[in-house]
Automatic annotation (TrEMBL):
Keywords: Aminotransferase, Pyridoxal phosphate, Transferase. Its cofactor is pyridoxal 5'-phosphate. It holds the Pfam family Aminotran_3. Pathway: Amino-acid biosynthesis; L-proline biosynthesis; L-glutamate 5-semialdehyde from L-ornithine: step 1/1. Belongs to the class-III pyridoxal-phosphate-dependent aminotransferase family. It comes from the Bacteria. Its EC number is 2.6.1.13. The keyword Transferase applies. PANTHER family: AMINOTRANSFERASE CLASS III, ORNITHINE AMINOTRANSFERASE, MITOCHONDRIAL. Coiled coil: none annotated. GO terms for molecular function: identical protein binding; ornithine aminotransferase activity; pyridoxal phosphate binding. One of its GO terms (biological process) is L-proline biosynthetic process. This is ornithine aminotransferase.
Amino acid sequence: MALTEDLIALEQTLGAHNYKPLDVALVRGEGVFVYDVDGKQYLDCLSAYSAVNQGHCHPKILQAMVEQAKKLTLTSRAFHNDQLALFYQEIADLTGSHKVLPMNTGAEAVESAIKAVRKWGYEVKGVEKDKAEIIVCANNFHGRTMGIVGFSTDPDARGGFGPFAPGFRIIPFGDADALEKAITPNTVGFLVEPIQGEAGVIIPPEGYFRRVRQLCTDNNVTLILDEIQTGLGRTGKLLAEQHEGIEADVTLLGKALSGGFYPVSAVLSNSEVLGVLQPGQHGSTFGGNPLACAVARAALRVLTEEGMIENAAALGPYFLEGLAGIKSNHIRSVRGRGLMLAVDLHPEAGGARKFCHTLKEHGILAKDTHTDTIRIAPPLVITKKQIDDALEVFGKVLAG
Ligand SMILES: *Cc1c(COP(=O)(O)O)cnc(C)c1O
């Protein structure tokens, strides 16, 4: 414990205080488990916000990373490398997208999509210069850069950081009528999460996305789905859009695209939207580098080869049912899709953070969100037995 306290104190002194982590200092991870400085084992029920869907330190991704790191890591896009084209090919085969733009962080993918969609609006849709509008949803989370926090509705995320870029309209999430009303001839895109993750795993009403898709098609508006958290198996499908049988015009991936080894993100689109970008108009020093591409290729490969998406589809409902069966006066409701789960507590329970602290004491790491919600998102390699063990702990900690 002394080492943990020393590390925490040092972080407190030297680091910006933009996070409030639980009191645990991790040194090692393997599969669904992580280990602290004292060797104590925890079941990871956050998966680095779904960046570690494939499990911690997946040996095949590790191998791909080490092999590539010994050969070539960064060329910049001034030259070709032997990994980028294969990354494009494999992600296109998997998702059916026609064009790919490689970036690094999720926020960069979002920013890149906004740029491409605006340019598409001017050059293809014919919107008047600087008049393009993008519709977004209240309680969205798309990242932390200036452009993105400007259309956040979270006072913590945007407070004190203005002035912000114009060109965004905010509507309620899950309300297709609101989208219909908000669309104008200048609307170029609708940017939305399939399930709002940071907002507390908010699942929209059945049929919402089918209507959204229709409205976007009818009005020549690009549907931009931010699948950075919901994508790559988390909800029991490769992409969450598949639950409603729709296809976005632009899909954003990040997080698990590298299995947690390295920041890798991508914008996927039909050929029209990313087709507007010409040499010199957008870029990234690290985007599309051979190390990132080799890691992402392995991360995608293990996801499908090892049946992780099917596992999420099979065990997500089992985990949810188990959570629903917990007898507790603290629990208001549970919800989830695949292995993206949440437990809502009554306000009288005293806040989710307290329970996350006790869960940690009992060997489970989970994250509170929005005061009264515990988010549960283990790596997709979790087994039925591990879920049973976890449910026992959840039952004990949430009892009362
Ligand atoms: C995490 C996340 C982002 C931002 O990704 P970063 O890599 O942290 O920049 C964007 N959108 C969604 C839905 C996310 O969950």
